[in-house]
Design a protein that fits this description.
alpha/beta, Glutaredoxin, Antioxidant, Horf6, Chain A, domain 2, 2 domains, seven-stranded mixed β-sheet, 6 helices, 7 strands, about 20% strand
């Protein structure tokens, strides 16, 4: 598994579905200047996946307040994505999800982000937080049955933006508004006083 943190995020162009419409030439690079939460999920019409997609959608306004764009990716076709978007939540669908969902039918995006499950042809639950220059600043990859915590993703966006703005670091379990520290010995000593 590759570590992409600190590296430029691999750009891509693919077909996506957003709000019941097909976007033929969806490019990651079109979102330069915005924070990106790029997340991969295994398959449409499964069990854990719709819970994650709805959980991200339910917090979309919080991501938007932080100038962070949500982008989902799976190896399914855009036709499958569109059908899933038109399936009610009560039937396992993702009706109501409004952020773009990219089709990685050729599996090149999953390969570039090193989340493709060898031999299975699907992606692990990879999540990549990109800064405004699309440098990967955080990545986490879960195994197939383990759903993500959207609150933790928001916390990481907050931490990234805080460190960029203030030049301080965020200790373990830090949340917006809590005590941070200067990255010096004096800062460390002051934090523990």
């Amino acid at each position: 598994m590759s570590v992409l943190v600190g590296k430029q995020a691999p750009d891509f162009e693919a077909i996506a579905v957003e709000k019941d419409r097909i976007v033929e030439n969806f490019k990651l690079s079109d979102y330069k200047g915005q924070y990106i939460v790029l997340f991969f999920y295994p398959l449409d019409f499964t069990f854990v996946c719709p819970t994650e997609l709805h959980a991200f959608n339910e917090q979309q306004s919080e991501f938007e307040k932080r100038d962070a764009k949500l982008i989902g990716v799976s190896i399914d076709s855009h036709f499958s994505h569109l059908a899933w978007l038109n399936t009610p939540r009560s039937q396992g669908g993702i009706q109501g999800v409004t952020y773009p969902i990219v089709s990685d039918i050729n599996k090149t995006i999953s390969q570039d982000y090193d989340v493709l499950v060898e031999g299975a042809g699907i992606a692990y639950r990879g999540l990549f937080l990109l800064d405004k220059d699309h440098v990967v600043r955080h990545q986490v990859v879960n195994d197939l049955p383990l759903g993500r915590n959207v609150s933790e993703t928001l916390r990481m966006v907050d931490a990234l933006q805080f460190t960029e703005k203030h030049g301080e670091v965020c200790p373990a379990n830090w949340n917006q508004g809590e005590k941070s520290m200067k990255p010096t010995q004096e800062g460390l000593e002051a934090f523990f006083k």
